[in-house]
Design goal:
The N and C termini lie far apart (63 Å). Helix 14 packs antiparallel against helix 15. With 343 residues, the chain is an alpha/beta fold. The protein is globular and about 60 Å long.
Length: 343
């Protein structure tokens, strides 16, 4: 029986640990200093992040990264995106050349604008590409942990790596597709969080379903536009890590980003909002990175810019939405107009 190491004891790390234990693996979950390991071990439940979900007795939980990684066939990163570099710095003392490294965090690094695979390479060296993969898609931890049917995608630079990760995670309730587009899968996972914030804001303003649907649709356009410029394949954004994750993050009651947006729309400050949600809201970080990258690369991202103005320039949400509605007239799909010439 193979051994799997999960780095991170939040909701997603716990859910994956349960899934892989049910898949028949020996699983060790490493918890950071902020996690209450003793309570999780005693109660066999992560009461802070996944209340009501039983943790299998065979699942080992530890604070010792060396013990967690030792003899693992695969190491899975399930920490917040802004912690990936710090965790990789610790991991470099323990990871071996034959171990797979699978990232399941979603976001961009604030200080560098890097995708998380780039962060891993920056710390662990380019050789990590040979055994690196990213798993993403519409996969709320609350549902995965309760064995509700879930479908995701795994991207890797090498197809044999993708196939190995696919085999690790596949189960009767967890279906995994493969994709060679690592940048696209990572970017879809990161950028959709900004759009979930936006849809949450208009819900908080009680603006209804019409504008929510429009924001999701135009949000996908922004994701594809920016993601393509940053190295992703435009087709990836219509898939599970793009449109699929966008839909679930914008619509689900489990979505932290949507919940945060709703609070902002109701008049909460960003600090009040983050304290109320009580968990990491990746979109609040990603919008900062995306806003500055868009300016550097000269990419038009009106929804992203509006979110940034609301969160960091104290623009009232109603005024920001009004600004989006009053933008100059546009064609919906510029490529169609350009291709038809004299339309």
């Amino acid at each position: 029986m193979k051994r799997m190491c999960i780095l991170g004891a939040g909701s997603w790390g716990t859910a994956q640990s349960i899934l892989l234990t049910q898949n028949g693996y020996n699983v060790v979950m490493w918890a950071g200093p902020e996690d209450d390991v003793d309570a999780i071990i005693i109660n066999r439940e992560n009461q802070r992040y996944l209340p009501g979900v039983k943790i299998p007795d065979s699942l080992v939980i530890t604070r010792d990264m060396g013990d967690a990684v030792r003899e693992a066939n695969a190491v899975i990163l399930a920490v917040p995106s802004q912690s990936v570099r710090e965790v990789c710095l610790q991991l470099q003392d323990y990871i071996k050349s034959e171990m797979l490294l699978i990232n399941t965090a979603k976001g961009l690094e604030i200080s560098t604008g890097m995708r998380l695979s780039q962060v891993a390479e920056d710390v662990l060296g380019k050789s990590i590409r040979r055994r690196f993969a990213v798993l993403s898609g519409p996969s709320h931890a609350e549902e995965v942990a309760r064995q509700m049917p879930t479908v995701v995608t795994v991207a890797a630079y090498y197809k044999d790596t993708a196939f190995m990760v696919q085999d690790i995670f596949m189960s009767p309730v967890f279906r995994v597709y493969t994709n060679p587009d690592v940048p696209g899968v990572e970017l879809g996972a990161a950028l959709k969080n900004v759009m979930a914030l936006a849809t949450g804001i208009v819900q908080g303003l009680q603006y209804g379903d019409n504008i929510t649907a429009a924001l999701m649709t135009r949000g996908l356009t922004e994701m594809t536009r920016m993601g393509s410029v940053m190295g992703g394949d435009s087709r990836t954004f219509t898939g599970l890590s793009g449109m699929g994750d966008l839909v679930v993050t914008c619509c689900s009651r489990h979505s932290r980003n949507r919940r945060a947006g709703e609070l902002i729309g109701k008049g909460y400050s960003l600090e009040e909002c983050l304290n109320t949600v009580g968990m990491v809201v990746e979109g609040a970080h990603t919008v900062r990175v995306l806003y500055h990258l868009a300016n550097e690369l000269d990419v038009d991202l009106p929804i992203t810019r509006a979110c940034y103005d609301i969160l960091y320039n104290q623009v009232p949400p109603r005024k920001a939405v009004e600004g989006l509605m009053k933008r100059s007239k546009k064609h919906e799909i510029e490529e169609i107009v350009n291709d038809t010439g004299n339309w």
